[in-house]
Amino acid sequence: MNDILSKTEEHATELLTKKLDSSYLYHNLRHTQRVVKSTKELLNFYSLKEEENNAITIAAWLHDIGYTVSATDHEEHGAKLAKAFLENLNCEQGLITTVCRLILATKMGHDPKDICEEIIKDADCSHFAQSSYVETSELLRDELAQLNIATLTRKEWRNKNIELFRTQHHYYTEYAKENWQPKKDENLEDLLKKKKKNSKLVKKEELKVSLKNKSPERGIQTMFRVTMRNHLKLSDIADTKANILLSVNAIIISLILANLIPKLDNPTNDYLVIPAAIFVIFSVASMIMSVLATRPNVTSGEFTKEDVENKKVNLLFFGNFHKMKLEEYEWAIQELIKDQVYVYSSLTKDLYFLGLVLDKKYKLLRWTYTIFMIGMVLSVIAFFVALKFYGPERIIELPT
To answer: Transmembrane segments in this chain: where (predicted)?
Structure first.
């Protein structure tokens, strides 16, 4: 049986990390792991049969895999997937039937029929009694919005949570009633307090408290990490393109200076002056534009204590602190990490200004390639006209 439990955990982890849509910010592997942990907490209190313990644990791992198919009727989809998986492991039919029944029991509005269903129902809602409930709930709100199921304001979402706590949800097991219900009541009290407060400062302070320790931040961190990495890749691509164009034009000008310019002293080659001038002018212009596209822009590199206290400075960008003393910068960073809202604000600013730099860089790069292309076309036309109508009936071969 230990082998089946291990394979079940591996199967659920693989499905929820590789096949689950990234829009599921709440119903993901982290939520499943939380439910499994709460399930084990309940099972340690109740002395159930081994087969019941195993069935509940397996159901806890598989209860949300139906989201890999659809958010609608995900319990039914999850039961079908669980049945196919367990049959593939040659599990007993009784175990399969129990697991499927327990998965279906997690559906909202279902009244549990026995202690097994009560345990998995309570474990699925254990986050109602956790200190990280506020942010966990926000992830669910964002998930509903991304899936186009419901778009609710913070006020509307808070009111729905209050209604849920008061009338729609209650714990079933005696253990949850004694140990989790008081903490759930505290969260309800916090929701009611927030409903009465309108001050932004108070909301931010309460948000900082709710984000400590157990805050599930993986989705937010992934968003910043992926977006920042994509922007940096785009910046590297732009720099590479500019360097390529800079090198090409440098080679072109070197060849012209070494092979074509000396021949212009000969009066018989006067017809090449204008084409050569066009060629050189556009090459030099392309080089200048390439340099402008890659030239760094460094700011003052200083900030004041007031800037940090008022959260006006982005401490994550070197251009804002490179002239500051180490002690001053260490103090500023300590102030930054105390305030998670300030951290996300700094990351947002960093991302925003990086986008502005990319916009400028790509516009310059576009003009650079346009100038280079026009210069090449005009130069070829100029050389053709000069050789065809004004030069001798021969093409000067440049030495190799």
So the answer is: 242-261, 273-293, 367-390
Residue 269 tokens, joined: 């080659």
103-156, pLDDT tens digit by residue?
999 998 899 999 999 999 999 999 999 989 989 999 999 999 999 999 998 889
d(CA 69, CA 2): 28
Q: Which amino acid is at 78?
A: G
User: Residue 359 in 3-state DSSP?
Assistant: helix
Per-residue pLDDT, averaged over 182-209, amounts to 76
The residues, ordered by sequence, that sit 6+ positions from 364 with a Cβ below 8 Å of its Cβ are 289, 292, 293
User: What is the residue-wise DSSP string for 128-165?
Assistant: GGSTTHHHHHHHHHHHHHHTTS----HHHHHHHHHHII
Half-sphere exposure of 243 (CA within 13 A, CB side): 6
Q: What CA–CA distance (Å, rounded) separates 279 from 259?
A: 14
Both structure tokens of 309: 């206290």
Rounded-to-5 percentages of helix, strand, coil across the chain: 75, 0, 25
Tokens, residue 46: 């109740």
Is pLDDT above 90 for 329?
no
User: Residue 312 has what DSSP assignment?
Assistant: -
pTM: 0.50
The tokens for 291 are 């340099």
Nearest to 270 by CA among 103, 167, 137, 396: 396
Both ends of the chain: CA-CA distance in Å? 79
Minimum mean pLDDT range among 11-25, 182-196, 215-229, 291-305: 291-305
CA distance 142 to 147: 9
Residues in the chain: 400
The per-residue pLDDT for 400 is 45
